[in-house]
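Internal QA ticket QA-208
Title: Verify multi-chain structure generation after dependency bump
Assignee: T.L.

Test input:
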Amino acid sequence: MGHHSCCNKQKVKRGLWSPEEDEKLINYISTNGLGCWSAVPRLAGLQRCGKSCRLRWINYLRPDLKRGSFSPQEAALIIELHRILGNRWAQIAKHLPGRTDNEVKNFWNSSIKKKLIPHGLSDLATFPNLPNPSASYEGLYSLNANPNLISTTQVQQDHQVYIPTPPSMAQVFNQGDMIKMDQYLNYNANLFPVPPSVVPSPLDLSCYDPTWSSLGYHYRPQQFDHQHVFKQEEDMFINNEAVANYTTVVDKLVDPKMATPLYGDDDDDDAVLPMGPVMPKLCEITKGNECNNIPSSSVSQDQVIGPIASLSCFPSGSYPHDHHHVVANQMEYFDAIMSLLPSSSSSSSSSSFSPLSCSQFGMNPTFPSRWDP
DNA sequence: AAAATTCACAACCGCTCGAAG
DNA sequence: CCTTCGAGCGGTTGTGAATTT
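Actual output:
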């Protein structure tokens, strides 16, 4: 079998990474930042191909990874996003702060998929057209009531569609246990044809890692390219008005201004209001490494939450302008957005969430897993 | 207790895309 | 244009731990 070109030039090690290799890679990136991956192995003194280094960093060593089990909320979001995006794991992962495409993909294949397959719903993204929309049964509502909200069905059909009213997300996931996750999955699987309609969650908006925020840091994603992300989606569905609507919604939620890198350029045109400590640089996290010339910047509170607050579900002034509150109640807002959907009498949106604990959204900043004692 | 099986997830592979020359 | 190269993505495989028989 052929190897990638960068792997052919020299004898490279493959397989699991050792702690020593991890340390080398961390030290190198801490000192030099992200650059040309093909040069990293040589410069870092690793017998690996650049591709392997990149993968190791992105999927495992990055300091902003959350790790740990997926919460039911995250699982629900993955399901919803998968309905829209299909197996575009990288796109899905972008909406799950601290999660990688690989992680999401693995989670889908190992946990979610097997729950859905028995019900024949494993491929929701390409689920065929709905049955006759005139079918009437309790708990149906029209998505057309809110043109900003779409479902997969709208992606596939350009006319009015009806879907079953889902139980409130808050109702289902209040306690965050997987039993309820199962109930949720079973509910959706049993309610032909599709799970609840899709609304981009406030989780989508987490262009900052919530854990950093909960710790009092403000994170500006390093390489979040909003324009690029949605350009790709628009290209893919260029003639699909429904998807255009979706991106419009997400555009509201993810302010392009936030695409300003965490480590901004030298221009002053992205100056923002200082808001407490900035997320520590990698070299500040990695013990014993010296910071170098990476300029940091902070992010204004309005930049982070402004787009969310502008949603109609938060009447003027009702959006809590407090980072900790925002993070602690993401699912509350998710549910609030869900409640925007015209709902039947059987659907309640009034239940409330317990604030998510730091541990629920906590990441494991240590270098993990197999090599842990 | 040992073997077999299942499971989660880390890592690899092949491919596409875009930029640069 | 064409070629080359690097980055990134999704599918697949490999590995080790956990569980079951």
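Spot checks passed. Confidence is low (pLDDT under 50) at residues 1-5, 121-182, 184-373 of chain A.
Status: verified.
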